[in-house]
Amino acid sequence: MGADILVVAEHKDGKVKKTACELLTVARTLAAARGGKVLAAVLGPGAGQAAAELGAWGAETVLVGEAGFEAYASLKWTRAICEAAAARRPAAILMSVSSLSRDLAGRVAARAQAALASDCTALSAEGDGFKIVRPMLAGRALVTAVHAGPGPLLATLRPNVFTAEKPAAPAAGTVEALACADDPRDQRVVVKSFAAGGGTRPELTEAAVVVSGGRSLGSADAFKVIYDLADALGAAAGASRAAVDAGYAPHSMQVGQTGKTVSPVLYIACGISGAIQHLAGMRTSKYIVAINTDPNAPIFKLADYGIVGDLFEVVPALTEEVNKAKA
Amino acid sequence: MKIAVCVKLVPSTTALIRVSADGKALDCTGVEMVMSPYDEFALEEALKARDKAAGSEILVVSVGGDGAAKNLEQAYALGVDQCVHVKAPDADAAAAARCAAAVLKTFAPDLVFCGRQAIDDDQWLFPGMLGELLDLPHVTAASSFALSADNAKAECKRRIEGGEETIEIALPALISAEKGLNDPRSPTLKGRLNAKKKTVTVKTPAELGLDAAAMAPALKVEGYAPPPPKSAGKVIAKPAKEAAAELVKLLREEAKVI
Ligand SMILES: Cc1cc2nc3c(=O)[nH]c(=O)nc-3n(C[C@H](O)[C@H](O)[C@H](O)COP(=O)(O)OP(=O)(O)OC[C@H]3O[C@@H](n4cnc5c(N)ncnc54)[C@H](O)[C@@H]3O)c2cc1C
Ligand SMILES: Nc1ncnc2c1ncn2[C@@H]1O[C@H](COP(=O)(O)O)[C@@H](O)[C@H]1O
Questions:
Q1: Mean pLDDT across chain B, nearest whole number?
Q2: Domain check: are A183 and A261 in the same one?
Q3: What's the pLDDT score for residue A58?
Q4: Does B31 touch chain A if contact means CB atoms closer than 8 Å?
Q5: Per the CB < 8 Å rule, is A141 touching B170?
Q6: B67 backbone dihedrals φ, ψ, rounded to 5°
Q7: CB contact under 8 A, B222 and A102
Q8: A197 pLDDT tier (thresholds 50, 70, 90)
Q9: Ligand 2 centroid to B14 CA: how many Å?
């Protein structure tokens, strides 16, 4: 095991995702502590374009897999990452929690004989190894654990928990091809098609601000007040399971244990009681705002700011104030 | 077809779990233990696949302490054919995947179903790892699953950032279940009575050829902590318009988040 840190950087058509910048920021600290270098692997259409930006964020070497990586394919992606890991022998491999890492990490860990720690909210160098903190039991407990080999650590990091900071000076960002020959066995699982949905708002799991509505909205049409505030803030829109089960919002908007985990800088819960399973999906948000008619709603225990009141009055007033403040 | 399902026993989602005074352990005494909810979707999908392909059988594996027996009784009540309990109370998700792989290697399944995540340690780790150990392709968090007419492949849907993928996977394959994949059935009275007559095969990791190194935890746990306490928030008790104006001011000037 070497001292380098390998970051699997996600991008969209060549534009580096914010979550990848967060990983690179953490990777720089870890590499400095271990006396190693930051490596980035970037795969898929547009990967080459992302390389310069990854250098600016501190990647000394950028392993680019573009030709032959047309669409996401778990078996080929696994092979590419594991071959890079076998050749470079990093001390740790970092990914962000996303659909991609949820699909890949277990497989990569098994093949690369890495110890996997999922959904970490803290990661530091510790002696010859690493120390992680991760929530478990839907956030009811935090576990601290140390890794000391023999293989590398594979850590997936929760988005928005680690602050992305650019280094004072860019790193070389030297591009090297990540060659990975085709294997017909990769065709055992293929993505046939992709149906875009979700519209123009930011992705829930990556958004800096999330506005969510609960059962008390009462209908799909009423969710417009949530969408209006979300749009004024440039935020993603979320929902409680009760709202989703009632058909007021699509499942893709569900926040919580059986939905998505979000960790934005600002989470605004409108007419949501704050059941433990909802908290599981948003309790690591930096600032939490609760708007609820019931001053005893459990959500207020977690809220930094609360308004006791009717969301149908408070939320449109907030939208108006936000628009005024922006003007 | 040979169909396998992996199920885990976990504390119920509403259970109050305390961290021991020294922070070294979680105290689950008196906590209700249940089958991890996603595993119920996995079991149901296996039952549906068996109904479709005549002559199929279902094997259920659970790795864990003695309590796993409860899980397996539930599986028998639903009508599965065989249950194996690997007795390994301290196995982490990776060690559990190795145990399941050892059991399933001899069974040689055409289909393996898991839950997307076990709701105790929330790792999302076991299915991908098991897929790799058995050299099976996998789909994570499938929200739909449809076998082809000849049972040679399946089409799955998976929700990802910005939309939904349609995935084609060739059997033998491993699928992890998302909520809503199906509507799990409840055991019938007859099923429950039948379950009493069935026996669970119990194995130890050693009997499966797994040594101490294979069962060693991937990371060494140092301790547990409850989520950090939140200091009391500011409650704004004013009419809607004034409250909204004050909140926006606080978010801009105090929290500096908008
Ligand atoms: C296994 C399991 C998994 C689950 N997973 C999830 C999950 O992923 N996500 C999730 O959210 N839930 C989940 N749940 C459900 C969870 O337990 C709650 O039932 C759910 O979160 C409640 O949603 P709610 O807050 O919208 O509704 P309620 O609990 O009914 O709360 C509505 C709130 O709105 C307030 N209110 C009413 N009218 C107004 C108004 N005009 N203005 C302002 N406030 C108003 C009320 O005071 C109340 O606090 C899960 C449950 C189980 C058992
Ligand atoms: N100890 C175990 N025994 C059997 N199956 C398990 C075990 N741990 C995890 N699984 C399976 O893997 C899925 C995901 O678990 P995890 O990776 O731990 O989040 C679960 O829903 C189960 O189907």
A1: 95
A2: no
A3: 97
A4: no
A5: no
A6: -55, -25
A7: no
A8: confident
A9: 19
Q: Do B243 and A302 touch (CB under 8 A)?
A: no
> B2-215 is classed in which CATH architecture?
3-Layer(aba) Sandwich (3.40)
Q: Least CB-CB distance to A141: which of B126, B163, B226?
A: B226
ipTM for this model = 0.93
Q: What is the pLDDT of residue B57?
A: 98
Alpha-helix residue ranges (DSSP H) falling in chain B = 37-52, 68-77, 93-107, 126-133, 189-197, 212-215, 240-253
Say if the Cβ atoms of A193 and B166 lie within 8 Å.
Answer: yes
Please give the structure tokens belonging to residue A161.
Answer: 């928990």
pLDDT band for position A188 (cuts 50, 70, 90): very high
Which pLDDT tens digit goes with each residue over B140-153? 999 999 999 999 99
Nearest-neighbour CA in chain A from B105: distance (Å): 16
| Partner residue facing B221 (CB), from A98, A145, A320 | A145
| Torsion sign (Cα): A250, B9, A281, A17 | negative
Residues A171 and A220 in one domain: no
Q: What are the tokens at A79?
A: 């092979």
Dihedral pair phi/psi, residue A312, rounded to 5°: -70, -15
pTM more than 0.90: yes
Contact list in A for residue B124 (CB cut-off 8 A) is 102, 105-106, 118-119
At A146, which helix (H) or strand (E)?
A: strand A141-147
CATH number at residue A111: 3.40.50.620
Residues A123 and A242 in one domain: no
| Chain B interface disruption, residue of A10, A11, A82, A107, most B CBs within 10 A | A107
Higher pLDDT, B126 or A71: B126
The Cα–Cα gap between A120 and A127 comes to: 19
Domain assignment present for A76: yes
Instruction: In whole angstroms, give the CA distance from residue B94 to residue A54.
Output: 32
Q: What pLDDT does A245 receive?
A: 96
The predicted-structure confidence for B168-221, as pLDDT tens digits, reads as follows: 999 999 999 999 899 999 999 999 999 999 999 999 999 999 999 999 999 999
Give residue A231's domain range. 209-326
List C-alpha distances in Å: B151 to A104, B49, B170: 25, 9, 9
Whether pLDDT at A198 is above 80: no
Please tell me the distance from the alpha carbon of residue B28 to that of residue B16, in angstroms, as a whole number. 8
Q: What pLDDT does residue B231 have?
A: 82
Give A243 Cα–ligand 1 centroid separation in angstroms: 8
Indicate whether B24 pLDDT > 70.
yes
Does residue A275 fall inside a structural domain? yes
Question: What is the side-by-side strand order in the sheet with A305-308?
Answer: A236-239, A209-213, A266-270, A287-292, A305-308, B234-236
Residue A318 touches partner B, C-beta closer than 8 Å: yes
In terms of Cα–Cα distance, which of A192, A288, A289, A195 is closest to A250?
A195
Which residue type sits at B199?
T
Give the mutation candidate from A17, A97, A116 for the B interface (greatest B CB count, under 10 A): A116
Query: Per the CB < 8 Å rule, is B220 touching A145?
Result: yes
